[in-house]
Protein: M20/M25/M40 family metallo-hydrolase
Amino acid sequence: MTNYTFRKRLIALILLFLAGTTTTFAQVNANQDEEIQKMVSEISAQNLRALVEKMVSFETRHTLSTTTDKKRGIGAAREWVKSEFEKYAKASGGRMTVEMDRFVVKADGRRVPQDTEMANVIATLKGTDANDNRVIIVGGHLDSRATDVMDAKSKAPGANDDASGVAIVMEMARIMASRQFSGTLVFVAFQGEEQGLYGSRHLAERVKKEGWNLVAMQNNDIVGNSFSGETGLHDNTRVRVFSEGTPANETEEMTKLRRTLGSENDSPSRILARYMKMTGEAYVDQLEVVLGYRADRFLRGGDHTPFNQQGFAAVRMSEMNEDFDHQHQNVRMENGTQYGDLIEFMDFEYLRKNTAVNLATMASLGRAPYAPEAVTVITANLTNKTDLTWQAPAKGKKPAGYYVLMRETSSPVWEKKFFVKETKTTINYSKDNYFFAVQAVDAAGNASLPVIPVPAR
Ligand SMILES: [Zn+2]
Structure:
């Protein structure tokens, strides 16, 4: 060790010590359910690679590519996804059903030159509790593109964008098909993302129209590369989850409440993102979930957006460092650089960990009780304590109890957790200085999404 690095480490140590004496942003993690641990351990980097290899073998999965060729193009690719889902469904005892949800997109004068039939491939694992109508969606997009977004002929392997996301969805469906969840789990390979989020918009509108009780939507797009070409950074220990701040469908009344509570970091989507961090980091070693406080990256959109627009909690997972030489690029050599979204630039151990975060989140939500209702913080008196009340959920399984979560108003993560059996409690910390939320929890420790209390006298 050089003198310089020694001094640097010493300073870092001192800073760490000082930080320890004041505020730390240590997160309280979710509990672990043995069954979910087991599912997480079954995720295989090798399987994920085989899934991505198969998707790349269709040469292009461009939305406007052939639907009649048996080996090439989007038609063959989506038939293959469907047949794989059907294989997994055999282990579900009839609970998993598979559909090709077809729809026609009219020529839009932009990225869809003529009326085009598209299809989302959907596997639905029905919940085991007939009284539980909650739905959780996990998705990725099957379509791919080359440099020119209208080029449906050139090779567009789309290994990372977004065979990686679809591989997550498929590996989860395989493992979860035989397991029990009281809520319903929906696994989707979207089409039409690159042409304008057509598949996700179609499903989000259907969810709204049919009145699904959708509690969470997890979008996975560009999740399997851990190397940034420009900066040379290698990092497979962090992954980003983007969430919108103010909800796309915020009403005047919601704005008023947000301003009173100071809850700009507690939109439904951000609550979900924080839940993913708390759950993912409990179940997955060597991975930090980085909360991205924006709806998406610059110049980019994703399949979570139409769900946000319909008022649902929806987030996007993306790798920490993107490699733009290997996204949206024709496969070619140029000045000694290989361009194109090729499998050789992917990191399947990283993809395995990202799958695990998704699986742990979906499984926990699917097994948890419904969230508590009418969560209230009593503001009748000026006190330095916090009185909270709520009601047991009217539907679903009976909770074993509740977690009251607490964090400083400037903290991005939940920092303290109190277990409560009753439906009210007094916390010995001031409501003025902390944010609170309440989760319903089952005996195995699976907790619902946190609910932010509304003030009442
Ligand atoms: Zn994408």
Observations:
- Confidence is low (pLDDT under 50) at residues 18-22.
- The two ends are 62 Å apart (CA to CA).
- Residues 348-367 form the longest helix (20 residues).
- The chain has two domains: 34-367, 371-456.
